[in-house]
Amino acid sequence: MRKVYLSNTPRGEALDQFLSRVDIPRRIETLATAAAAGRVTGGPVIARLSMPGYHAAAMDGIAVRAENTFRASDQNPLLLAPDKDYRYINTGGPLPEGFDAVIKIEDIQVLEDGGLEIIAPATPWQHVRAVGEDVVAGELIVPGGHRLRPPDLGALLAGGITELAVRARPKAAVIPSGSELVVPGTDREKGSVPDFNSTVIASYLAEWGADPEILPIVPDDPAKIRASVTAALENNDLVIINAGSSAGDRDYTFSVIEELGEVFLHGVAARPGKPTILGQAKGKPVIGLPGYPVSAYMSLEWFVRPLIFRCLGLPVPEREKLRAALGKRVVSDVGVEEFVRMTIGHVEGRYIANPLTRGAGVTMSLVRADGLLVIPANSLGFEMGEEVEVELYRPREELRHNLLAAGSHDLIIDLLGTFLKERNPRMSLSSAHLGSMGGIVAVGRGQAHLAGVHLFDPESGEYNWPYIRKMLPGVTVRLVNLAYRMQGWIVPGGNPDGIKNVKDLAAGKIPFINRQKGAGTRIYFDHLLREAGLSPAQITGYGREEHTHLNVAAAVAAGTARAGLGILPAARAFNLDFVPLAEERYDLLLSETFYNSTEAASILTVITDPLFHEKVEAMGGYSMRDAGKIMEG
Amino acid sequence: MRKVYLSNTPRGEALDQFLSRVDIPRRIETLATAAAAGRVTGGPVIARLSMPGYHAAAMDGIAVRAENTFRASDQNPLLLAPDKDYRYINTGGPLPEGFDAVIKIEDIQVLEDGGLEIIAPATPWQHVRAVGEDVVAGELIVPGGHRLRPPDLGALLAGGITELAVRARPKAAVIPSGSELVVPGTDREKGSVPDFNSTVIASYLAEWGADPEILPIVPDDPAKIRASVTAALENNDLVIINAGSSAGDRDYTFSVIEELGEVFLHGVAARPGKPTILGQAKGKPVIGLPGYPVSAYMSLEWFVRPLIFRCLGLPVPEREKLRAALGKRVVSDVGVEEFVRMTIGHVEGRYIANPLTRGAGVTMSLVRADGLLVIPANSLGFEMGEEVEVELYRPREELRHNLLAAGSHDLIIDLLGTFLKERNPRMSLSSAHLGSMGGIVAVGRGQAHLAGVHLFDPESGEYNWPYIRKMLPGVTVRLVNLAYRMQGWIVPGGNPDGIKNVKDLAAGKIPFINRQKGAGTRIYFDHLLREAGLSPAQITGYGREEHTHLNVAAAVAAGTARAGLGILPAARAFNLDFVPLAEERYDLLLSETFYNSTEAASILTVITDPLFHEKVEAMGGYSMRDAGKIMEG
Q: Half-sphere exposure (CA, 13 Å, Cβ side) for A357?
């Protein structure tokens, strides 16, 4: 029988339980000081030698005996006898035996006969660096548990420490398990999935200070998983199994850990990341991570990161936090803590945070995330406009210059972001795919800097302005043309169904893949339907929605749809055919405030750059003839 | 003739000039994705493949054709025919051809005869992960100029990118120059100095993203320096020479750069770091760094760091800033920007910053620094208590838990810091060596958490309280014993001058090394003088001061003094003799507020721990018999 339900232990409780029941023993290793940057000292380090090791001149000049110079004055310059009274000395040079002060070269008068006069006495020990001024033998250079930075290495070497004890990095085995997994780069047959999770997990582990090793992929076979874990336990301080941590009939992680040791907990009241297994075998921590990428990385951070930092004796670093206004309502279920990836930007004087997709399988949501919103288990979520605290994935300073693009998404927006970043490393651009209508709303509410808009108004034959006027009455905004682009039918190679217009779709009951409500392309499709006198019910698949041109093309390429409406580069990305339908205007909507900013000026500089036009037009289906032109309403 | 004066160009101007005249060309290299963590993308990266590459089940259950399930309801359960109507499917498995929805395993009724029923219809595409849900072919995964983090690697591999173009790390040669330099670890003869600067410079360069190489040490010989720079220019993008950048008669860096290329600037109006040379040869940046360690690292950060970040196309990260009250007046000269290393802690609700030594040669000041105070060129400095902005070397969160120890310094304080940190990784301890009197003042003013105090009052025969009562009238404080320790004469091995008491010192005109004013040991020495009826003038070297026991011992070991007053472990560190004089009480002074904090509780836990006692007593000359006892006034 399947065991279907997991426990619902609160995350904090799960972590406390785990940390109290397992540990990674602390080991020490000896390293050359020069190779120890970033490592953590194994104990206090005391200087063996002093630096300087002798009394040294702190200036270029002459070494003197101070008591022999007391008579020197402006009125009575004192002639010094070479060797007996003075010796030339360079900065850093050792003070000769019996000498106790240095006079700077600038304060010496060289006479015509080569004699040497001074006009002021030297005080004892002036301009002398005493033994141990830099580092003195016997002093503590760095305490134990200290992460070594470059100047620490300098002080250690100065203090005669050429090698030292550091805490060994805990060794962590990562076992990718799953019959569907193949090594990344292997040809992907239907049903096979590249094991990219292991690379992410190992990179995080290395970043946190562990020494990770990715073991060979193991199929869903309990004996083989057991053998791999058993071998891994020999040479490692902890073992991570990814995945098989859920409760399906091919999920063996639980039973393997239970067999080899003990499972403390199966299931955390947090999302994504719920199907986590915490246990031990041979006294070493064994963790079963969920298979969905975002779930796996969340769970790794919750339970493995504190374990590693504790082993290294370092505090777990806290992420910078920021208060931001929500650009969108975020709902949550009571009883489960939710982790929502957010884009964050600084719009009209305040930080705005927008949720990205919450799918546990969407790695791109972590790539695009600027921060994380943690919704407590007892909360139903937050309203739009509400101020929330977000944990930052990028420095606050960077987010201060992060532009939020809402509205319709087009590949040109990504290209614009890349150009901006390459020319102004401080600038960056985060996109939310809200559709044209959503973009107008976001700019109107001060929740985005700009929005891509391509909304045709059949009545006036005009683009965008009729919608903007209606949706943002009385608000001053600017509309700048980004491009004209060709919309058309995205169909399988050779256009087997001979799609030319929307009537062909209806007549042939061709499975269609639609765009989401509010998208300009959806509105255009509805317009085509009305024009042809058709109703949505006559289109097979009208209710099936995707959020981007590329995802529409992907559905056609996968054969689950036989037609979609979209742009040429999307069809090209999947080697599909494209039946051009009409050129449409794609504009950028900017608030008046933003339009007058230096950031907007940088955007306009890119948009009007022939190099940018060249790159855009190379994608196919674009005309940049009006790019950068203000489109008057 | 010596060229003595350097230019006084403001730092910002010098940097602008430098960056406008030199550049490091950007190179691209191809790396395996799995090895690219932390590297910067060479251009935008577009997904080649979609993930998932096929429509996949998002749940464990059965794949069905939605249109065949529409009739199912609570009242009329629908029996499904295996194979034709349904197929079992696991999460991630490919949806079989012709099937378009998944029903969760929990929603299926298995009948006794093995038949399978459902009681609700499936909607098309429910519980299906569409092709490209995670990453869709053709979409931008990361823009150019993006520093790769672990989840980026996952998205790249998911998108079929197993190798990618990244910006090559600029190659930087570090040339240690100076006839006094030896490789660290070599036996140190008088006049030789281990080259530890190169290791620090190379570690910083690597941390900032460059690829550094330390070349062999070159003596102060212009031909050899020229040859080394010429060779370095062949294989590197920039060359750093350390040192010889000043204007002494053995400083050849200027003339070598001038000969091979061009010097833009010699001398910056900033301290430490003034004698910097910025130039080029063969079109590549060549930098002459000062010889004093702190100067070298400051200059490296000012001029080389921005160059590297520009080459990598990344913004130069800004340090976190903090407003703190000055615990001490900090003066500065007009016309020069000054960089003062500071300790920082959070005392009684506000951050307090105290200056460390400003010596350019004191590497330990960088090791001990929690932050940096930048005094503008037009400022005369800041008054005690004034609020200043400091740049942080450690995260603010860490400094929130950093304890400031003022007052007399003893090796036990360092040991206490190490014990605290090992047991509470979030805690740390920064010491300012202010002497006992300075420590009482600092605790009284809320500028330190605790102070080491050992002040004997001859009139009452009492320790510490008479001074505290006089200096902090009406202030409630706590005094806790840390140890009793033996004070004595630190003298050369075999005590050749037969020092037993202060009269022997005076009689033999033995060169003495004193402690600074306000130090408990200085006050004790003055007491010994008065007791013996002697005056300071009768003591040779009475005016020569050191700030620590260890530095006193170092002076005796170097032979520039033949006696000092101090503690046994200091004598031991230099293999000197120690003539015990008297046991003294060494207490910790804590404000009442701090005494009641959890941090103080952690301190008391360490102080009363037998393991700590063992470690302290092993240093020699300590008794822990009252450690942790409240010393009533």
A: 19
